[in-house]
Write a structure and sequence with these properties.
By secondary structure, the chain is mainly alpha-helical. The chain is built from 2 helices and no strands.
């Protein structure tokens, strides 16, 4: 997963995360956050 894909996943999943019960969607959200953290896309420049 690229940082850009991770960001798109986070944005789309976060919109419906208030009542998210789909385990696979939650795993994708967490993996996306992990990808951004590891690759540093979320760092201020």
């Amino acid at each position: 997963m690229t940082p850009e894909e991770a960001l798109r996943n986070i944005l789309s999943l976060a919109d419906g995360s208030d009542e998210m019960e789909d385990v696979h969607a939650l795993q994708l959200l967490l993996q996306s956050i992990k990808t951004l953290a590891e690759k540093g896309l979320g760092r201020a420049q």
